[in-house]
Amino acid sequence: MFFMKWLEWRFLIISHAFEIYAGMIAAVFTVLGIWLAQKLSKPKIKVVTIEKESPVIGPEFILNERALSETGISARELEVLELMAGGLSNQEIAARLFVSLSTIKTHSSNVFFKLEVQRRTQAVEKAKRLGLIP
Amino acid sequence: MFFMKWLEWRFLIISHAFEIYAGMIAAVFTVLGIWLAQKLSKPKIKVVTIEKESPVIGPEFILNERALSETGISARELEVLELMAGGLSNQEIAARLFVSLSTIKTHSSNVFFKLEVQRRTQAVEKAKRLGLIP
DNA sequence: TGTAAAATCAGACTAAAGTATGAGGGCCGG
DNA sequence: CCGGCCCTCATACTTTAGTCTGATTTTACA
Fold it and tell me: Of the given ranges (A77-81, B54-58, B104-108), which has the lowest mean pLDDT?
């Protein structure tokens, strides 16, 4: 029985040798094709942009020249305004700028007038809004 | 001459019929393989992530509770501090909160003590730094 | 229920801040 | 060279801010 079966197989293989050969070639080259496709195909590139919140990197202050000229605030007055914003008293500002208290009072009064306010806290607040100080 | 060439070709084709056949099969199935690969394989996706710096859009203010408890500033005192930062005088703050001027003076004095400052401008400046007010 | 913190207010005082007015000197452009 | 602006300073005065002391009431909490 075994022998018979084997003979049958042998016959089949021999008589269909070409077809088997062709099939093997087909199989091998199909695999080759798949492999080629995988190797050669360019990957699709998907670009994902991620918005990253940067915690206020640039404290870069740019003076608002327009507002400055519109208010008519002078260089010295702006200096006083900056120190004022730093929380200094008129006395301390005077010492810092090597001038008298009277001078600072005059300057600050002028600043208040030009900014249309009546208190230093308001002046600082408005000056910041206008971009006159950081 | 032409005839000779043709004969030569013919001979070549016939004698190598099998190889040509095999080659064609190989070619066809290579293409099939490529096609299969294209159809069946998931498309390769290469994900490129790009970090994009965005300059903090939201000026959303979040109160710094830590600093608040550390300084020991009470709710009412914080209210006064906020109005103070708005440039209001003690008189105006008193009117706004329906209390007397004395009360506001007491509150502000307490705030100055807790923030370790001596002037309202300094208090406002420091409070902003600490995240107590916007 | 006692108490500690918070909120309220007052009076008195000191210290700043702000206003008003005037004035002198420096600098610049018409 | 003069008028206008800026910077400076002073004096006098008013207003606001800030300190200190002391007190009452409310609220929250153990």
Answer: B54-58
- Given the structure tokens 């009412």, which residue do they identify? B76
pLDDT at B134 over 70: yes
3-state secondary structure of A47: strand
Distance, CA of B113 to CA of B94 (rounded, Å): 20
Tokens of B112: 């100055």
Chain B CB within 8 Å of residue A53 CB: yes
Nearest CA-CA partner of A120 in A90, A92, A79: A90
- Spanning CA of B65 to C1' of D28, the rounded length in angstroms is 20
pLDDT digits (tens, 9 = 90+) for B64-80: 899 999 999 999 999 99
Which positions on strand D lie below 7 Å from a protein C-beta?
5-12, 16-22
Q: What counts of helices (H) and strands (E) characterise chain B?
A: 7, 1
